[in-house]
């Protein structure tokens, strides 16, 4: 089985988010970038397929040279090869088109992407790829087993979960649940050394249209101070929720 | 030119978000000076959409769509777009709809944005406001491609009544076997519970509750309020609660009208997923807990004392206020 894990390079979950003075872009000053958490669960599941079922695992990212540390980190975790599509990831449609090209050329059986990137929260790349490549697709995937050509996945639904049966080639939009939290790997020294020797191919982008453009950004209004209610006076809380907030 | 809205139903009844997106689409169409058309699949009373400004409904009745299938729904939506020449498609932010809408967006190669919180700030060009960076910011996004697909955030717009008569036409898209490459074999869902996505009120518990045996506090409070229950990430990692209840940046997003956090410290990753809720109440023993900075109302106190008291007082309040 040949697996492609699509890795989005995102600000660390603890990052404070700021925008440039003209509000036109995300200000990356001082921001630490990491593998998108949803993709990290997927990559870890891919490692399981590699170790238990002999799969080959490639990772791909659409991004400028600035994303290479994140690709190297994925290689240090255990992916066999990295691919960087050398372009600014303008929007979901553009990214999906680039990754679809890689999938077509590379002949992958399983494409693991994430439910969403935690930065722009597009939540669309794997679904768009599924349409472009006409492949089976499971979104919000929290469990995946593959046996020969058959796959059984579980997806999260509102209020529960659903088990799905399908076949390869398959794309998933993965998230927490694909592996246990405790199975996530921190690259060790050996992994980091080996990653330096692994192949990282840089390919030019193909022509692709964009569907959207972020024209400006804004931070939420700063929150007013919290109103504290005395624990001895819970009636006051109920009145506030009823009369002031009007939520009960 | 028209605006097409996909209205989701479950077992024949419209979901709450169907009325929200119908309201959004009809107001959008009005501001664009164009017609709004709804697409409904296996809804028993499609004319109900008339209450929310929908005068025309394409109604699909197809047994094979009784169980949700994302690709088949995407394909039905695509055919409805072709039938109506819609240039804007409005969808909800439910898990099912987001799943189908992304496929539709790939089929149409137009523009797609979700988590949209208000009507477009301009329609030419079409620019919408949406949450980004896990609620730490807003993006104003221009939809350049046509058709444009707008995913409206839950509870952001609300259902707005504006009664017209809905003309229901039957619509028979082509549903083919190739749409069913992914088959549902089992659904595990508590049918008597409000879901986090649909709930107006969410009651959430963290590690401060000490163990799963204390979750009756959360459940009882949720019961009185007709709320959904949720939890912080460690609570689901520890197996105290199912993963589907985990909310936050890496869990389910919450955009309820009221979010009550009990024994949750308010870590940045937790807040990122719940900040879209309109009113937030925190109950925590530690006055320094970061959540107090993000909350509207707070009680510094022990959950084991405050919550039972709150449940009792709420019961009295409900008895008096119906
Ligand atoms: C990549 C990444 C992603 C993450 N994603 C998420 C996410 O999506 N969602 C999420 O929730 N977390 C997430 N986290 C974890 C997050 O950083 C915190 O660890 C977590 O939110 C803490 O959960 P908690 O508030 O329940 O527990 P704690 O931080 O242990 O807080 C418990 C709170 O309970 C209070 N308390 C104790 N006893 C009582 C009592 N008797 N009555 C009232 N209060 C009491 C304490 O004062 C404390 O504030 C993520 C972390 C990482 C690294
Ligand atoms: N620039 C990118 N390079 C590679 N994969 C990406 C990129 N952007 C998004 N993805 C993949 O698509 C998933 C969903 O992203 P998005 O649609 O942007 O929220 C991510 O979890 C990744 O797996």
UniProtKB/TrEMBL annotation, chain A:
InterPro entries given for it?
Answer: ETF_a/b_N, ETF_b, ETF_beta_N, Rossmann-like_a/b/a_fold
Give the top-rank taxon of the lineage listed in the UniProt record for this protein: Bacteria
Q: Which UniProt keywords apply?
A: Electron transport, Transport
Pfam families this protein is in? Answer: ETF (PF01012)
| Keyword Transport attached | yes
- Give start and end of each Electron transfer flavoprotein alpha/beta-subunit N-terminal domain: 23-212
What SUPFAM superfamilies does its record include? Answer: Adenine nucleotide alpha hydrolases-like
In this entry, which stretches build a coiled coil?
Answer: none
Q: Which family does it belong to?
A: Belongs to the ETF beta-subunit/FixA family.
Protein name per UniProt: Electron transfer flavoprotein subunit beta
TrEMBL record, chain B:
- Keyword Plastid tagged: no
Q: Which Pfam families match?
A: ETF (PF01012), ETF_alpha (PF00766)
Where is each Electron transfer flavoprotein alpha/beta-subunit N-terminal domain found?
3-184
The domain of life for this entry's organism is Bacteria
Q: Known InterPro entries for this protein? A: DHS-like_NAD/FAD-binding_dom (IPR029035), ETF_a/b_N (IPR014730), ETF_a/FixB (IPR001308), ETF_asu_C (IPR014731), Rossmann-like_a/b/a_fold (IPR014729)
The family classification in the record reads: Belongs to the ETF alpha-subunit/FixB family.
What name goes with this protein? Electron transfer flavoprotein subunit alpha/FixB family protein
Q: Which organism is it from?
A: Robiginitalea aurantiaca
């Amino acid at each position: 089985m040949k697996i492609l894990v699509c890795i989005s390079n995102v600000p660390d979950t603890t990052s404070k988010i700021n925008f440039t003075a003209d509000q036109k872009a995300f200000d990356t000053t001082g921001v630490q970038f990491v593998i998108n958490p949803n993709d990290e669960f997927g990559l870890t599941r891919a490692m399981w397929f590699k170790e238990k079922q002999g799969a080959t695992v490639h990772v791909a990212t659409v991004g400028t040279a600035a994303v290479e540390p994140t690709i190297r980190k994925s290689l240090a975790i255990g992916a066999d090869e990295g691919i960087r599509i050398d372009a600014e990831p303008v929007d979901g449609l553009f990214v999906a088109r680039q990754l679809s090209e890689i999938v077509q050329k590379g002949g992958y059986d399983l494409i693991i992407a994430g439910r969403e990137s935690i930065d722009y929260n597009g939540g669309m790349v794997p679904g768009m790829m599924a349409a472009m490549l006409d492949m089976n697709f499971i979104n919000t995937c929290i469990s995946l087993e593959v046996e020969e050509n058959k796959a059984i996945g579980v997806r999260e639904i509102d209020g529960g979960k659903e088990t799905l049966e399908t076949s390869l080639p398959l794309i998933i939009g993965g998230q927490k649940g694909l592996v246990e939290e405790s199975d996530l790997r921190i690259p060790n020294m050996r992994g980091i050394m080996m990653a330096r020797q692994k192949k990282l191919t840089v390919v030019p982008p193909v022509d692709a249209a964009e569907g959207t453009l972020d024209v400006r950004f804004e931070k939420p209004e700063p929150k007013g101070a919290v109103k504290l209610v005395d624990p001895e006076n819970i009636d006051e809380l109920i009145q506030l929720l009823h009369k002031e907030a009007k939520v009960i | 030119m028209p605006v097409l809205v996909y209205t989701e139903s479950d077992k024949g009844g419209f979901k709450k978000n169907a009325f929200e997106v119908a309201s959004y689409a009809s107001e959008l169409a009005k501001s664009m000076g164009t017609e709004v058309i709804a697409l409904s699949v296996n809804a028993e009373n499609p004319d109900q959409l008339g209450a929310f400004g929908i005068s025309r409904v394409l109604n699909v009745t197809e047994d094979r769509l009784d169980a949700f299938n994302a690709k088949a729904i995407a394909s039905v939506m695509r055919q409805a777009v072709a039938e109506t020449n819609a240039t804007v498609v409005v969808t909800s932010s439910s898990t099912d709809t987001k799943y189908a809408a992304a496929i539709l967006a790939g089929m149409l190669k137009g523009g797609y944005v979700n988590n949209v919180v208000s009507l477009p700030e301009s329609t030419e060009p079409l620019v919408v406001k949406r949450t980004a960076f896990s609620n730490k910011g807003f993006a104003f996004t221009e939809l350049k491609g046509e058709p444009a697909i707008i995913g409206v955030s839950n509870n952001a717009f609300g259902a707005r009544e504006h009664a017209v008569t809905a003309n229901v036409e039957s619509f028979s898209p082509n549903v083919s076997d190739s749409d069913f490459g992914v088959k549902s074999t089992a659904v595990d869902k508590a049918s008597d519970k409000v879901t986090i996505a649909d709930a107006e009120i969410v009651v959430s518990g963290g590690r401060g509750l000490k163990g799963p045996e204390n979750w009756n506090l959360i459940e009882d409070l949720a019961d009185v309020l007709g709320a959904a229950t949720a939890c912080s990430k460690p609570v689901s990692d520890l197996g105290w609660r199912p993963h589907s209840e985990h909310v936050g940046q890496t869990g389910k997003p919450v955009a309820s009208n009221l979010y009550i956090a009990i024994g949750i410290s308010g870590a940045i990753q937790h807040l990122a997923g719940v900040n879209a809720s309109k009113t937030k109440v925190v109950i925590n023993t530690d006055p320094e807990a970061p959540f107090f900075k993000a909350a509207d109302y707070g009680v510094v106190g022990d959950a084991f004392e405050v919550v039972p008291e709150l449940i009792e007082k709420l019961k009295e309040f409900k008895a008096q206020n119906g």
